[in-house]
Structures are given as structure tokens and as C-alpha cells.
Amino acid sequence: MQAGGPDSAAISEAPSSGSEESDCEVGPESDADTALTEEWARELLSAAGVVAPQEVRVESRAGVAGALSRVLAVTVRYESDGEREALPLVVKLPPRDPFGRLFVAEAQFDTREILFYTELAPVLNRLAEEALGPGQGLPIPKCVKARLPDEIGGDSELVLEDVTANGFDSADFAEGLTVERARAALYAAARLHALSLALREREGPLDQRFDFLFPCERAAAGYLRLVRRGLPQLEAFLRGRTDCIEEAAAVSALSARAPSLLGTLLRPAEPAPLAHADFWSGNLLFREKEGQSECIALDWQMVSLGRPMDDVALLLLSSLTPEMRRAVGESLIEEYGDRLEAECMTLGAAAAGAEVRRGLKPDWPRAALRALLLCAGSVDVALGEPRAESRLLEAVKDLHAQGILSLKPDNDA
User: Fold this and answer.
1) CA separation (Å) from 386 to 4, 275, 306, 382?
2) What is the pLDDT of residues 302-354, one digit of tens each?
3) Coiled-coil regions in this chain (predicted)?
């Protein structure tokens, strides 16, 4: 996993650990401005209600060029009623590489994220507005503009507010999240899970209306690529240490067994809420306001029907130091469960919330192993950074001690 670069605006949509974007580079996009013209900026300003802006220009500040997208931090500057104004934005465009474009198109990564922002998020936000009050919707950036590709491999565009202008910033991945930030992240996840459970109560299974959600069978193919790439690297790393002989053998056995495990690891359980599915600190931004940590979640390319513990386990294993996870992990799960159940009750989905809450602890082994496979898929990023290496190593040791590395498919005798 990769936490992003030093420019917080440039990593407002950070590389996804599950999307194989961990080798992206941060820097200015030399020819990215060709699509970001004055006409483009005027369309955005008009949609935002700005009347007759003058002296409109677009400034590119930084960019992230990855395998699945190009993410640009730009500022639209203009004059309105004699005042100079600035609109900071984050723009997501398809990769230039033809193979990358085809991969994105086949997996519908860009389409899924656009439809999340334009179709699913507005429905959940209206539900939140009705039940929880103004400003209580999903903790996500505002979508300013979106354009779906008009053909397979064609151009798409997603323009979001740059929330770093409002004080949000990325966390230091190597340092790990503080307890307060981990709690804020889990409360953000609880809002997503509770709203989607409430919508399911009203309308039935969400994938019937929102058919773009990442299907289990397609997710399995992506995880299989991660397994085949990452677990051998993880095994080799463990075998290079004299204190990890048992863990290396367990990872070797897991590598052989993992393809048959994917159905067990990825299958949703009823009642199935939405899951972010890549919920780690690199896809989160934080700010401190009035003594409280607040969290916004980014990168919704893998949003799917899933299990809440998937998001919880990935955050705890990937984004907390081992010492912090061992000290407060269980209490954070309890706090998350309390928040989820309370919000479900307010949203009219008390029974679903209680059922999901009861299943959290029993679901830890499955969710933790899924999280480890995601982490292993980006093991090359962790290797060479002592704190990241230690976090991965200690997670493997703990899961081995808990017997989780020996988990078998549901249909095994």
C-alpha cells in the first residue's frame, strides 16, 4: 500500500491498494492541461451558479499518474463582481497508456466511481438528510462534474471539490493513525454502512437498482492477481528472517489454497450493505475541528455489496501500528458497532443494524484474511520502509497466532 506523496492536494484521490496503482508517481502532468481549457472552466463555473465570470484561467498544481487513472489538482481562477475568486478542484481522468485504459474499461473502475457519485451517493444523502438532518450525508467530496466514457476505453472525467482547501489532509502512513483518527474513519464507515442498510430496507438488494456495484466474481479475478503477485513476495520476505519460519510456511500453504478461498472471503452476507472495499488510510483525508477528528473517504472505484467488517479489518491491519492495533483494536470494533447500531436505529433499520452488529466479531477471521491479501498485493511498497515492514510482519505473526492463516473455504469438510 502506498500513502501518497507530500502534496496533499495531489493525493486527494490516493492510489488504491486493491487496484494495482501502488507504483504511481507524483508530479506535474506536462500535457494534462490540454483538456482543461477556459471553456471547460466556464462550464464548471456556470454549473456552480457563477454568473458572467471574467479573467477565467486554469492552473494545474500537481498530479498523480497511475495505472488506473490520472489525478490532477487544479485551481480555476476568475473574477466575479470585481472580486478575485479561486475554485480548487481534483480531476480524475483515464490513464494515457492504452493497456491501462482497456483494463480500466473492462473492470469499469472509472464508470463505477462516476456512477457512485452521480447516482448512488445522492440517494444516500437524501436519506441522511431526511433522517439525520442537514449536512449528515456521506463523508465524501462534493462532485462538481462527471462524464461517462462514450465507448469502451473512451475518455471519462470526474471533477471533485478539493477538500484539502477546507483543511483536510492525508495521514502519514508510516506513522499510522492515531486513535482519534482511526475512530473518525470507522465512524465514516459506519455512516456508509448504516445508510446503505436503511436504503436496502426500503428498496431491497441494492445491486438490483445500482447494477454497477463491483460484482463478487469480478472482484475475485482482481484478488487472484494480487495473490499471485504478492504472496510469493511476502513468503520470500518471511523466509529471509530467522524468526518467521512458521509464518513463511503458513503463507506458502495459503498461497496454494488462496484461489479456492476467494469465494469465502468475498461473498457478501445478508443483510448486505455497501462496502468501500479499499478502506485504508491512503484513501482517507482528515482534519481536526473543534477538538474532534473528521474523516472523508476517497477512491470509490471498488464500491460493492460486502460486509462491514471488510472495511473495519482493512483499516485496523493496514493503517494502525501493531502496538496501537493490539492495544485498542477490539475497543475500536466495539465503538464502530455502537455507532453502526445507533445510526441504523435512527434510520429505521434497527433490526438490520443489530444483526450486522452481532456478526462483527465472528466475521473477523474472514475479514482479516481478506485484508492480508490486499496488503500482500502491495507488499513491494512496504518492503524497504522499516515501519511499513514491521507493520506487515506483525500482522502476519498475529494472524498466524490466531489460526487465521489456516482458514479454509466454507465448503471444506
Assistant:
1) 17, 31, 33, 8
2) 999 999 999 999 999 999 999 999 999 999 999 999 999 999 999 999 999 99
3) none
CA separation for the pair 210, 119 (Å, rounded): 8
Q: How many alpha carbons lie under 13 Å from residue 323 in its C-beta half-sphere?
A: 4
Q: Which structural domains are found in the chain, ordered by start?
A: 49-161 (3.30.200), 169-406 (3.90.1200)
Alpha-helical runs (H) found in 167-273: 179-203, 206-209, 216-239, 245-266
CA distances from 167 to 104, 120, 139, 163, 380 (A): 31, 26, 14, 7, 31
Rounded CA separation 227/374 (Å) = 8
Quick one: DSSP state of residue 161?
E
Question: For residues 388-401, b (16+ Cβ closer than 10 Å) or e, as one string?
Answer: beebbbbbbbbbbe
Cα–Cα distance measured from residue 22 to residue 27, given in angstroms and rounded to the nearest whole number: 15
Query: How far is residue 209 from each of residues 115, 119, 307, measured CA to CA in Å?
Result: 12, 10, 19
3-state secondary structure of 386: helix
Q: Which of 16-20, 219-223, 374-378 has the lowest mean pLDDT?
A: 16-20
Instruction: Give the C-alpha separation, 350 to 344, whole Å.
Output: 5
Task: Compute CA 361 distance to the chain's CA centroid, rounded to the nearest angstrom.
Answer: 22
Retrieve residue 4's grid coordinates.
501518497
Q: Which amino acid is at 336?
A: Y
Q: What residue type is 16 in one-letter code?
A: S
Percentage of the chain modeled with pLDDT above 70: 90
Write out the three cell numbers for 362: 465472528
Element (H, E) at 377: helix 364-377
| pLDDT tens figures, 75-110 | 999 999 889 999 999 999 988 888 888 888 888 899
Q: Is residue 153 a contact partner of residue 83, using CB atoms and an 8 Å limit?
A: no
- How many Cβ atoms from other residues are within 10 Å of residue 49's Cβ? 6
User: What grid cell was written down for 297?
Assistant: 473517504
